[in-house]
């Protein structure tokens, strides 16, 4: 009797071992492990959905802050307001002239000798740079006023490659003969997208030819001499 009971327990243990081995070899790698991976993916997707929902709930606040930032930038524009580089270059020249006139009324102590627009040769630049080469003849105080007015105004302008040379002679009757010969680059940047909108090609107008004056009638050919007239002349 004890041996029969022991055989039953041994058979039961062997059955459990076979079932466990079958589970480890057949059920777990083919069913349990893939299901666990699916559960992990579902949990990750739910967490991501919660983050997205939280961000979507913050959309009104973000849009409000974005509008406030845009309004602040419009009140203090850093970019040139013109639509094209040509118009921006003209605006740069006008701002320079106003700054010089404010620093030296009547151009007695500061005058513009030359200003030449420069082309932007940078490739793949994010912002279009509008610049001009400027040459002034100014006193020290007037030059400081001009540069301060240009660099602290609105929109933001930049002074690069500043060169100063002492001047001891008089170039024109309006100059005092004392001061500095100054050359620098005055630059600003166009608003992103403004240059692309302003540079759209416009259809070229067809050339209209000027009306040609009527051609003069051809001169009449000289009449051929008559034979009778020649004989009369000879006689």
TrEMBL record:
Signal peptide: none annotated. Coiled coil: none annotated. Residues 195-235 are annotated as: Disordered. It comes from the Bacteria. Residues 195-209 have a biased composition (Low complexity). Residues 210-223 have a biased composition (Pro residues). Pfam families: T2SSM_b (PF10741). NCBIfam families: T2SS_GspM_XpsM. This is General secretion pathway protein M. The gene is xpsM.
């Amino acid at each position: 009797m004890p041996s029969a009971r022991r055989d039953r327990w041994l058979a039961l243990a062997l059955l459990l071992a076979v079932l466990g081995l079958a589970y480890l070899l057949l059920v777990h790698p083919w069913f349990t492990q893939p299901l666990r991976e699916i559960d992990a993916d579902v949990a990750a997707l739910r967490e991501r959905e919660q983050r997205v929902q939280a961000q979507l709930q913050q959309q009104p606040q973000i849009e409000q802050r974005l509008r406030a930032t845009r309004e602040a930038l419009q009140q203090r524009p850093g970019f040139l307001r013109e639509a094209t580089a040509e118009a921006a270059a003209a605006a740069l020249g006008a701002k320079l002239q106003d700054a010089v006139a404010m620093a030296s009324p009547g151009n007695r102590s500061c005058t513009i000798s030359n200003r030449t627009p420069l082309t932007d040769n940078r490739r793949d630049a994010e912002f279009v740079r509008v610049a001009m080469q400027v040459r002034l003849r100014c006193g020290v105080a007037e030059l400081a006023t001009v540069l301060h007015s240009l660099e602290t105004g609105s929109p933001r302008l930049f002074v690069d490659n500043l060169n100063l040379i002492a001047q001891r002679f008089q170039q024109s009757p309006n100059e005092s003969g004392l001061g500095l010969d100054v050359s620098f680059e005055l630059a600003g940047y166009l608003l992103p997208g403004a240059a692309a909108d302003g540079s759209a090609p416009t259809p070229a107008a067809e050339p209209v030819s000027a009306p040609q004056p009527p051609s003069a009638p051809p001169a009449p050919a000289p009449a051929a001499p008559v034979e009778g007239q020649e004989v009369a002349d000879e006689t």
